Amino acid sequence: APLPSHRPIQALPDQLISQIAAGEVVERPSAVVKELLENALDAGATAITVRLEEGGVKRIAITDNGRGIAPEQLPLALARHATSKIASLTDLENVATLGFRGEALASIAAVAAVSVTSRTADAPHAWELVGSHLGTVAPSSGAHGTTIDVQDLYFNTPARRKFLKSEQTEYGHCAEVVRRIALARPDVSFSLTHNGRTIDHWNVSEMAKRSAHILGSEFAEARLPIDETAGPLRLHGFAGLPTASKARADGQFFYVNGRYVRDKLLVHAVRAAYQDVLHGDRFPSYVLGLDLDPALVDVNVHPSKIEVRFRDGRAVHQFVFHAVQRALSQTSATAYGSVP
Ligand code: ADP
Ligand code: MG
């Protein structure tokens, strides 16, 4: 058979490079929602609104009250590999922000119509940048903070557009991302609307309401607080009692340094702690956060993957296992009346 191509090696046009890079980061509308929410949190926002239209495909507009972007920096926000979050390899090894690659906004702008409106604390008014880092920055109206408005996702990449599922499915993924983040950040208010309808609205510190809504009322009523520290590791949050367990693993929320993860090692450690109190076909519900020195965990695995790598996985596993097991054993003792 002939070789697939007789073409010489050629550098790809910039536009195509951006679209290929975008594919890594912007797999579907919910990936845009995740990136924009992480940026809002990194900017110190305490109030975030998410407006979706048609499952996020038509529009994703996220407004925050964070520190904003100065007008002369707006083009850089949309430029590839430009970030305010790290400047060196040392910074990368100690990264404490959710973002650090400086490619999300550029990737989104490569496959959608984007506008960024922002006003810093000391600015008399907002400024807006439309299109890409090559667009012009013009005065605009708006409160302190930032709005990123993303419209017509994949309008210029029809092959990708074809892979989108139904509006309801894409919407569901977007809502899931908002809820994951809202569960981890009771210090921030969130509101979510879809096609003009308010779906979720949570004020600051409404954790019981958030967890009841997201994990069900059983969890809200039957959850054990955990807060344990051992050396550089701290585990905090809530482990659901067996009565709050589920037939599916959809009530499991684990965060590492505030970042939602689905990590085999952590899932296994928690599951093992439930060994004696839960039937094999049930899944525990929990909202747990592991905090540790950023130098002890590598979050630089893949832009859209929710995986991390621990420097000492064994120690993390043992710590999480014992902390959850201790919490569970204390209450079963209380429940049977053996502890006053
Ligand atoms: P990263 O988050 O990895 O730095 P992004 O492409 O997501 O890369 O964002 C680029 C830069 O734009 C950020 O480093 C930040 O300085 C700025 N930025 C993006 N979104 C916001 C926001 N909502 N508020 C303030 N600054 C923002
Ligand atoms: Mg980012």
TrEMBL record:
GO terms for cellular component: mismatch repair complex. It comes from Massilia eurypsychrophila. Keywords: DNA damage, DNA repair, Endonuclease, Hydrolase, Nuclease. Coiled coil: none annotated. This is DNA mismatch repair protein MutL. The gene is mutL. This protein is involved in the repair of mismatches in DNA. It is required for dam-dependent methyl-directed DNA mismatch repair. May act as a 'molecular matchmaker', a protein that promotes the formation of a stable complex between two or more DNA-binding proteins in an ATP-dependent manner without itself being part of a final effector complex. Belongs to the DNA mismatch repair MutL/HexB family. GO terms for molecular function: ATP binding; ATP hydrolysis activity; ATP-dependent DNA damage sensor activity; endonuclease activity; mismatched DNA binding. Residues 211-329 form the DNA mismatch repair protein S5 domain. GO terms for biological process: mismatch repair.
